[in-house]
Amino acid sequence: xxxxxxxxxxxxxTAAILTLLTLSAASYQSVSALEDTxxxxxxxxxxxxxxxxxxxxxxxxxxxxxxxxxxxSDEGVAIFDGEVVDVPFLHAPGFIQMLTRGxxxxxYPDVSTCSALQMNLMATEExxxxxxxxxxxxxxxxxxxxxxxxxxxxPIGEFDNVVIPFxxxxxx
Length: 172
What we know:
Elements: E1 2-7, H1 13-21, E2 26-35, E3 40-45, E4 53-57, E5 66-72, E6 77-83, E7 86-87, E8 92-93, E9 95-100, E10 114-123, E11 130-134, E12 148-151, E13 160-165
Antiparallel strand pairs: 1-9, 1-11, 2-3, 2-6, 2-10, 4-9, 5-6, 7-8, 10-13, 11-12
């Protein structure tokens, strides 16, 4: 499983509302892994996607956040757009996710010889809450979370590569 997550934590209510109302859309052209030899293994390319991409939002836990994922193969992009709002009974920010669990008959490439995850993407506005995760393993210290996660900053207004070394991913 691969997912991109947006959420807000530990910020004042007024700032959270203003920021959440301007949550940016992100567009993704490709996701790949870099081998130690600088060879690239493509995990997904949106001009010919091999996985089914969907959105998941906090309404699964009573929240009111919304998001959509639209794959535009002719443009070679996937557009992830949404708004995070406070979960009413928690009085805390919710979340939105763009994710894939693969698809019928699809597999992920072996990236065991790779050293980093590379994503070619762009955001329309600055936002400091993006995270990417992969894997389905559930570790005890991960509490409710699955897989390995890392934060990243998205380039604004232009597509560029974001490279996250695998040693920056955590199970927490």
